[in-house]
Amino acid sequence: MLVGAEPHTEWLCDVVELDERGFILTGRDIPQSAWPESRAPLPFETSVPGVFAAGDVRYGSVKRVAGAVGEGSVTVGSVHRYLQV
Ligand SMILES: Cc1cc2nc3c(=O)[nH]c(=O)nc-3n(C[C@H](O)[C@H](O)[C@H](O)COP(=O)(O)OP(=O)(O)OC[C@H]3O[C@@H](n4cnc5c(N)ncnc54)[C@H](O)[C@@H]3O)c2cc1C
Questions:
Q1: Cα separation of 6 and 81, whole Å?
Q2: Atom of ligand 1 minimally distant from the CA of 56
Q3: Cβ 27 under 6 angstroms from ligand 1
């Protein structure tokens, strides 16, 4: 096992959509059946509208410090867009 490779999101499994390994699905990776809104999910938005995920715990993230920081920065923009809706 690689240290730091497990997402430890068991507690989230009934809350947001996860992949089979426990990583959080966001944006276009959320299955249509799990998305409750008529609009498309924003970048880094989870299957719960207005809840966002960034960094290693997110499915599809690059698992690097700079990637996590960048995703967090972009997520701020998504939060602003969500609050304007
Ligand atoms: C051994 C190792 C070496 C690495 N080397 C490099 C490298 O050289 N270069 C590089 O770019 N990246 C490296 N990485 C990857 C880098 O550490 C991660 O990509 C980065 O830390 C991800 O940041 P994050 O904020 O998404 O997650 P994390 O840094 O893991 O932060 C998540 C935080 O959430 C906390 N947390 C977890 N669950 C809960 C909860 N239920 N409630 C509250 N808090 C919670 C955790 O304690 C942790 O503090 C390495 C990783 C490991 C494991």
A1: 31
A2: 26
A3: no
- What's the CA-to-centroid distance between 4 and ligand 1, angstroms? 7
Of the candidates 85, 9, 6, the residue with the CA atom closest to the CA atom of residue 53: 9
- Torsion 76-44-82-48 (CA) sign: negative
Q: In order of start, what are the domains of the chain with their CATH numbers?
A: 10-84 (3.50.50.60)
- Structure-token pair, residue 74: 């972009």
Q: How far apart are CA 80 and CA 43, in angstroms?
A: 12
Would the pTM of this model clear 0.90, i.e. be above it? yes
Identify the burial level of 53 via C-beta atoms within 10 angstroms of its C-beta, where 0-12 means exposed, 13-18 middle and 19 or more buried.
buried
What would the pLDDT profile of 32-57 be if each residue is shown by its tens digit? Answer: 999 999 999 999 999 999 999 999 99
